Amino acid sequence: MTRCAITNRKIVSSEEQAARLALLDLARRCAQTGIDYLQLREKDLGAAEMVSLARRILTELSGSQTRLLINGRLDVALAAGAHGVHLTSREGELTPAQVRSIFPEAIVSVSCHTLDDIWRSLDADFLLFGPVFEKSVAGERISKGSGLELLREACLTAGHVPVLALGGITAENTSACLEAGAAGIAGIRLFL
């Protein structure tokens, strides 16, 4: 089973230094426990801050099989020496083919929310599909889940491209995602 941990320092701590230290701790734990991918998804940071943070994370991952993907920032991935980049499936955004024309050895993943998104992203190395389950924070629903049946259709549509289930994934529902055809799981809170 493929596992992808996604960062969000703002849910870890409101104090910036503590939050960044928590990200480094997450990277260490990913390396120690064999998490396949760590997606650095800190959208509010500027390029220089992202490069610096990514380099520190890469130091923590050194010698492990965990690969660092930078969310939506090819420039940061290249400057930091990351293993690849994670993209959105929105039309008009960067595509896996465009990434590989600049960064041929990049691992490229894409977030998909519909079957059309999957059709547009079949040249990725793997896809994140979701949200599969309803996501709630402090009892308040953030997003409605698309369900296991749509996950199954997404996996069939993707064919040879691995699909990781995303959104509301827990230890309790992981096996249902795998039974629906997912190659693995991805999440933020799941790996904290």
Overall description:
This is Thiamine phosphate synthase. InterPro entries: Aldolase_TIM, ThiamineP_synth_sf, ThiamineP_synth_TenI. This protein is α/β, with parallel strands linked by helices and 192 residues long. It has one domain: Alpha-Beta Barrel (TIM Barrel), CATH 3.20.20.70. The protein is built from seven helices and ten strands. The strands form two sheets. The chain has an eight-stranded parallel barrel, surrounded by four helices. Strand 7 and strand 8 form a beta hairpin. Helix 1 packs parallel to helix 2. It is globular, with a radius of gyration of 16 Å. The mean pLDDT is 96.
Strand content: 15-25%
| Uncertain ranges | none
CATH topology: TIM Barrel
Overall geometry comes to: globular
The total count of strands amounts to 10
In CATH, what is the class?
Alpha Beta
Q: Provide the spatial order of strands within the biggest beta sheet.
A: 1-2-3-4-5-6-9-10
Tell me the structural class.
alpha/beta
Total count of helical runs of at least 4 residues: 7
Mean pLDDT: 96
